[in-house]
Amino acid sequence: MSGPTPKDFIAGMDSNARKSPTRVVFVTRRTSAQVKVTAEDQVQTYPELLFRAVVAIEVLAIALVSMALLFNAPLEGIADPSHTPNPAKAPWYFLGLQEMLHYFPPVVAGVLVPGLVVMALIVIPYFNINVEAEGLFLKDRERRVLIFYVVTAALCLFLLLFDVYVALVPALIVAGFMALAAQSSPQSASAFRRGLAAKPLSFWIMTWFLFELTVLTAVGTFFRGPGWSWVLPWRS
Fold first, then answer.
1. Lower CB count within 10 Å: N or C terminus of the chain?
2. Which residues lie across from 80 on neighbouring strands?
């Protein structure tokens, strides 16, 4: 009497994934799955990372306390409901938005523009999931350069339409660096141009946003006088 006929395990391609899987691994008692790993540099959370964080926090706290002891805060007098100061300025971290309110309606300056920038910074990194960020103009260069010039022209036209010259200047500066990045490559002789070519889209949007916020805050702090008129900071 003959023994049982051995079965042949064959993995085939089929529309039914349960019936014919595309990946099959058979592990017997005599063999085991082999996993190839590479040694990577590791840093312990404690004490290396936490110690550095504590040192940074302590240095920052000492610097802030020293500034508070050596310099008086530029506070005004007690609030008087019958006398509104002119100009009535928001805290410094809101002066950028207040400067935008000088040009745009409240919905645009306070909701639409900041919301679009924040949403872009949240969504853009998920365009390429689990893929290392690459330079904006390294792939499909001609189409991306065309889109860049069209978007830049539309943004400049929009700012000129509302006479927002203080925001137009930073936008043109960032656009100039992006145009230089479009003409650069990872094999450029200059390290600066190689760095520009490697910057992804999220970097450029964040740079433009921070640059605009810094300029608008500085203008609202030093260059705005009574009636939110343009004044030079060295003149009383």
1. N
2. 83
Q: What is residue 83's three-state secondary structure?
A: strand
Q: How far apart are CA 73 and CA 92, in angstroms?
A: 13
d(CA 228, CA 67): 29
Whether the bond between 47 and the residue before it is cis, its omega within 30 degrees of 0, is yes
Q: Could you report how far apart the first and last alpha carbons of the chain are, in Å?
A: 113
Q: Nearest to residue 179, comparing CAs of 224, 137, 124? A: 137
Would you state the pLDDT for residue 75? 76
Dist. CA 226–CA 87, nearest whole Å: 5
> φ and ψ at 83, to 5 degrees?
-135, 110
Tokens of 164: 């927002």
Give the residue among 96, 107, 89 at the shortest CA–CA distance from 166.
96
pLDDT in tens, 72-121: 877 777 888 888 888 888 888 889 889 998 988 888 888 888 888 788 77
